[in-house]
Structure formats: structure tokens, C-alpha cells
Design goal:
By secondary structure, the protein is of the alpha+beta class. It has helices at about 10-20, 45, 55-65, 75-90, 110-115, 115-130, 145-155, 165-170, 185-190, 200, 205-215, 215-225, 250-270, 305-315, 345-365, 375-380, 400-415, and strands at about 1-5, 25-30, 40, 70, 95-100, 100-105, 135-140, 160, 235-250, 275-285, 290-300, 325-335. A 5-stranded mixed β-sheet has the order 5-6-1-7-8. Strand 7, helix 7 and strand 8 (about 160) form a beta-alpha-beta unit. The longest helix is centred in the middle third of the chain and has 21 residues, at about 250-270. It binds magnesium ion.
């Protein structure tokens, strides 16, 4: 979970904290209205007159001649910003300062220390109030994008949480302008198409959006469906590889590990709401000869499907009939996982539901709380601690997915027959 904390009307709030005479008055930081400056920050009292950041101070003066105009003091603002950062750091080590008065705080794993997110956020607000005497707004959600939207909507001095299962429901009634990165030009074009709210946007066919918004169409949908800043543009591939504790020719073990690596990769894909179009399989033999092969597949993030494609390559690579030392996979060619209605693809939709349910269980009880029967051999024989300690196969429980349970039973019957 991410928490977005943003100080309200920052420059003005600092001025008010330093000079209580300014509290409750329309205050504008940005210089004298006689000069050619712009409003850098306006108090909420000034905003009631229609004054916004970025507006020429001369215009602001016409709207509200009684406002207090201040030149501002950047040295003070920097000092307050540093204190703000320090307060955030006392709650989590993982902080990104998005600007001088705005921070994203990763609050994963803070529950033991600070309680549930709501309690943590209240503590944080009190801390900021006591130490800085500045109001702060806080939004909490699964992604940075949603936490930012929640924070904006909670202003001033607010606190808002979007539960992960209610993201779309929460967003639907809002104007499209709440989305990050959307420009006045986009809003204008959408307005002409009579698309004003997120709900209307989601009901619009992709081709219309692509024509209207160009490359931004993909990004806005990516964000709405839970994609986050940084994950779309920057990440090029997800790879997982593991060196076996001993070189092996056991197909059971090789395929088991192979499926395990694909599952790990797919879990990351789904976490980032991505699908992959390319799979690379890599194998290193005991003589250190390394081969890798790459194929394209229909874009997806289901380990069951990707394994089917991968197994064909793996079989090919194993023609060498040598002991295997290392197995690796890489997923690339990303697309956002739009969860488009797949009326014609029932199987895909089922896998999708199964896998997201699987992720939720693993999130709660650990990755190995559920595993396919075909990776059971890994658990039975080995306990990996080599690179990719993430391949440690010590499960506390041994539930298997239903489909695999059937496989297991079939195998058992097979053994009985022998
Ligand atoms: Mg701010």
C-alpha cells in the first residue's frame, strides 16, 4: 500500500505558521500584483475568489484586491520540506519526495509498528500538525496513482483510503481530469466526445480513445486498472533464474523448477497489472554451455498458458541430453492488463480469476502456501538457498490448485496400477 501525503497550500501555510496574523485571510505567495509574477500558492480563502496557482498576480489582484500578497521565502520552505521528510521517514524507510511538499510513502509492513493504515495516517497528521503546524492531506491506496487521486480528493486537511477492491467503483463518478498526466487538450477532446467522467471513459470503445488521445489512451487505462507510475515505462523485462543445488537430468525436477520460475514471473506481472508477449527460456548445462531461446505468444499473464508455450521450447533445448545446471526465464514485451471483457474467451477469464485469487492467498500466507502438484518434487527433494532464494520451496501448507489436485490423483492411481 502507498500513502501520498501532500501539504496543503504549502508556501502560504508556512507563512501562516510563521505569522498567525495571516491565518483565515486570503493570502497569495507570488510577489506583488504590480510585477509580472504568477501565483505560486494561494490560501483556501483566496481560492474562493477563483484564484489558482499559475495565474498572473495582476489577475489575482483584480479578483481579490483585499488579499495579502507576499513575495515568499524559499529558504523557509526548504527548511519545512526537510522537516516534513523527516516526519515521513519516522514511519517508513521507503519514501519518494515527488516535490517540495509531496511524498509517496510505501507503508507495506508498517502495521505492527503503527497499526492499520488509517491509524498510521492519523498519527502522521498529528505529527505534522504538532511539529510543523501545517495541514496535510493524506490518500492511501494500492498504487501511487490511486493514493495521489485519493489525496487530491481529500483536500484540504483530509484523509481518504481507497480499498483495493473498490478502486474502479471509487473512480467511476469522478471527472477524467483527476487522472494524473491528463492535459487540458485531452480534456477538451474528451468533452467534445461527451466523455466527462471515468465511467463514461471506460464505456468508450478502445479505438475511439486511441484515435482521440493517441498514446495517452493506453496510459490512462493502465492507471485506471491499477498500473502505477514507473512500472509502465521503465520496466522492460521480468526475469527469474535459479542454479540447481546439483546438476540434474531429472525431467520432473527441471519442469517443476521451470513452472515455479514462470509462476514467480507471472505473479510479478499481475502485481504490476501487466501482460507479456515474449518469453525467453535459458538453460545452462553442466559444461557451462548456455542456450536461450525466445518466442512470441499471445499477450497474457497466466502461468498455465505461458508454461504451455515454454514447455515446448524447454523440450527442444533439452535435446542436448546433458545435465542441467541452471534454468531461467524472462518475460518481456509488456502491455497493460486491461482486463478487457473477454466474452469470447471464457477459459482465459477463468484462469484470470483463478490466478488473482491465488495471488491474494499467497499475499496473505506466503508464496508457498499454494503450489501446483508438478512443483512438488522441488519441495520434496530440495531446499534451495542459492541465488533466487525466492525459489525456497518450504511450504507450510500443501494445498494444491483444484486442477492440479486432479493431476495428482491421476498420478497416484497410475502408481497403484503399477
Ligand atoms: Mg501541496
Amino acid at each position: 500500500m502507498f500513502l501520498c501525503a501532500d501539504l496543503d497550500a504549502f508556501f502560504v501555510s508556512v507563512e501562516q505558521a510563521l505569522n498567525p496574523y495571516l491565518i483565515g485571510k486570503p493570502v497569495i505567495v507570488g510577489g506583488s500584483p504590480k510585477e509580472r509574477g504568477v501565483v505560486a500558492s494561494a490560501s483556501y480563502e483566496a481560492r474562493k475568489f477563483g484564484i489558482n496557482s499559475g495565474m498572473p498576480t495582476a489577475q489575482a489582484y483584480r479578483l481579490c484586491p483585499g488579499a495579502v500578497f507576499l513575495r515568499g521565502n524559499f529558504g523557509y520552505y526548504r527548511w519545512y520540506s526537510r522537516r516534513f521528510y523527516e516526519i515521513m521517514s519516522s514511519f517508513s524507510p521507503d519514501i519518494i519526495m515527488a516535490s517540495i511538499d509531496e511524498a509517496y510513502v510505501n507503508i507495506k509492513g508498517t502495521r505492527r509498528l503503527f497499526g492499520p493504515p488509517l491509524v498510521l495516517a492519523q498519527k502522521m497528521k498529528t505529527d505534522v500538525q504538532i511539529k510543523l503546524n501545517i495541514p496535510v492531506s493524506i490518500g492511501i491506496a494500492r498504487t501511487k496513482v490511486f493514493s495521489k487521486i485519493a489525496c487530491d480528493q481529500s483536500k484540504p486537511n483530509g484523509l481518504l483510503i481507497i480499498p483495493p477492491e473498490k478502486e474502479i467503483k471509487f473512480l467511476a463518478p469522478f471527472k477524467v481530469s483527476v487522472m494524473p498526466g491528463i492535459g487540458p487538450k485531452h480534456i477538451y477532446i474528451l468533452k467534445n466526445l461527451n466523455i466527462n467522467t471515468i465511467d463514461q471513459l471506460l464505456k468508450t470503445p478502445d479505438w475511439v480513445l486511441n484515435t482521440a488521445l493517441g498514446s495517452y489512451a493506453k496510459i490512462i487505462k493502465f492507471f485506471i486498472y491499477g498500473g502505477d507510475f514507473n512500472s509502465y515505462d521503465r520496466m522492460k523485462s521480468i526475469s527469474r533464474e535459479t542454479t540447481l543445488p546439483e546438476d540434474t537430468i531429472s525431467k520432473e525436477l527441471i519442469y517443476g523448477l521451470f513452472l515455479y520460475l514462470i509462476e514467480r514471473g507471472c505473479t510479478t506481472l499481475r502485481e504490476k497489472r501487466l501482460r507479456a508477449k515474449t518469453l525467453t527460456v535459458k538453460i545452462r548445462f553442466s559444461d557451462f554451455k548456455t542456450i536461450s531461446k525466445r518466442i512470441r505468444m499471445p499477450s497474457n499473464n497466466a502461468q498455465q498458458t505461458i508454461f504451455e508455450y515454454g514447455a515446448r521450447i524447454l523440450e527442444n533445448l533439452l535435446q542436448e541430453k546433458k545435465r542441467v545446471r541452471l534454468i531461467g526465464i524472462a518475460l518481456s514485451g509488456f502491455q497493460y492488463d486491461g482486463l478487457q471483457p473477454s466474452m469470447f474467451r471464457v477459459k482465459e477469464e477463468r484462469l484470470n480469476q483463478l490466478n488473482y485469487a491465488l495471488d491474494r492467498v499467497r499475499d496473505k500466507f506466503g508464496f508457498n502456501s499454494l503450489y501446483p502438484a508438478s512443483t512438488h518434487s522441488l519441495k520434496k527433494r530440495h531446499c534451495y538457498s542459492s541465488y533466487g532464494s525466492d525459489a525456497r520451496m518450504v511450504g507450510r501448507h500443501s494445498y494444491t490448485a483444484k486442477k492440479d489436485e486432479k493431476l495428482l490423483t491421476n498420478n497416484d492411481t497410475g502408481c497403484d496400477a503399477l
